Amino acid sequence: MNDHELAARLATEAGELLLAVRGELAHAEPQERKDEGDRRSHDFLMEALSARRPADAVLSEEGVDDPVRLAAERVWIVDPLDGTREFSELGRSDWAVHVALWQAGELVAGAVALPAQGVTLATPTVAAPPVAPESPRIVVSRTRPPAIALQVRDALGGTLVEMGSAGAKVASVVQGRSDVYVHAGGQYEWDSAAPVAVARAAGLHTSRIDGSPLVYNQRDSLLPDLIVCRPELAEAVLAVTAR
What we know:
Elements: H1 3-24, H2 30-52, E1 57-60, E2 74-82, H3 84-88, E3 96-103, E4 106-114, E5 119-122, E6 137-141, H4 147-156, E7 159-163, H5 166-174, E8 180-184, H6 189-201, E9 205-207, E10 225-229, H7 234-241
Parallel strand pairs: 1-2, 6-7, 6-8
Antiparallel strand pairs: 2-3, 3-4, 4-5, 8-10, 9-10
Helix pairs in contact: 1-2, 4-7, 5-6
């Protein structure tokens, strides 16, 4: 099994596990669902990667950051449950599992599973989104849309689409359900590594909000801002965000 296939399989299987946890804890408190989902998905991914790729390092949101990854040639960057709030709310589908592989300075494989939608988007081939509407759709958090996204909406004459996790937002651009995702104000490498790998495979623009490259497997895993958008909109978006 190659790295693309492994990323897709692990993201999908972790998602199936999370659906089972959701079912088991349907009558539990939301915080219990969040905690159990995070724990069980993380444990599954760590055990699977240890068995399938024992020589590789792993950076997981739910794990202790081992500095050995900084000297490693290959590092898996995973978010076992992206969008814990949405996962804890029964009936919501805008949460995800992220599995990405960084190798020698680049993201080389990635998968974003959307378990409640029955979808996994994975490298190396991802279909490009369909033709965009005249008014660009800017996907934002349903609870705290960043000011910069509102500025992009105003500059492009667009509309807002509210959604949960970062993975679900990027997936919506890949799937053609939105056109621009702009975030500023705090994320980490595991929030964007797999979504960015998938977006690139679909031919989308990805960068920091100042236009500089997104760089992974850094000592400080904070990667606070990004843009994922249709390539034909990148210049207009960056004209706003790179000021």
